[in-house]
Amino acid sequence: MHPAPDCALDETSYRFDGDGLLLFVRVTPRSAKDMVDGRVADAEGRTRLLVRVRAVPEDGKANAAVVALVAKTCGLPKSAVAVVAGLTQRQKTLRLAVSRDRLADILGRLGIGPDRTEAAIGEDA
Hints:
This protein is of the alpha+beta class and 125 residues long. Helices cover 17% and strands 31% of the residues. This is UPF0235 protein J1C47_05125. It comes from Jiella sonneratiae.
């Protein structure tokens, strides 16, 4: 994995379909803190959102931590976020049950849109 250039995530990082937003992420378990930490390019050159969680990757603990972190960051209930692909892999696809009119807000909260802050998203203050 290589750090992606410092630019907005391209549309290969997410896709809106009729059921919500599909978000393509790379997860780093056993991290020092839970945080959405920018972007990373995969082997095929696609940009993914980098998500770090303290949880260990066993018995679904890391997946649950990813769901909780993304939900909190996006201001959604945990029930609105699901891992739909990559349950046992670092590269995952998340489905966020949001309407198209919330898309800009959600992308901004994830640091993808124009409302991105310089601080890491999800980091405890």
